[in-house]
């Protein structure tokens, strides 16, 4: 947390870091992730765990129909067509677009945070299908 706050409050965080360096009971004693001998501003930025589950938000006409959890590494490398296929496999999405023409789909990914796929269908065709 101190490393992530350092760009906003460098002097304060540097003081915290110097006290933390001499504190007993460190979590990373080996120095594998944190280089305890280096000053705060030379520390590497924290990385997201590649197995951490992130969300693929599946929308139909901008309304959320399903949320699929995928590992971070898989989500970051997810291609547009595969995201569309995963969205179609969700029961709520599939049942909502059943009998309708897909006009287009939009895919947006925010690296190491989430991805969104929005499937745009014909509204009029949906109403006819329901009746």
Automatic annotation (TrEMBL):
Pfam families, sorted: Anticodon_1 (PF08264)
Gene Ontology MF terms: ATP binding; leucine-tRNA ligase activity
Domain Methionyl/Valyl/Leucyl/Isoleucyl-tRNA synthetase anticodon-binding: from-to ranges: 2-71
Main enzyme class: ligase
UniProt GO BP: leucyl-tRNA aminoacylation; mitochondrial translation
Catalysed reactions, as listed in the record: tRNA(Leu) + L-leucine + ATP = L-leucyl-tRNA(Leu) + AMP + diphosphate
Family: Belongs to the class-I aminoacyl-tRNA synthetase family.
Any GO CC annotation of this UniProt entry: mitochondrion
E.C. number: 6.1.1.4
Keywords: Aminoacyl-tRNA synthetase, ATP-binding, Ligase, Nucleotide-binding, Protein biosynthesis
Stored SUPFAM superfamilies: Anticodon-binding domain of a subclass of class I aminoacyl-tRNA synthetases (SSF47323)
Identification of the protein by name: leucine--tRNA ligase
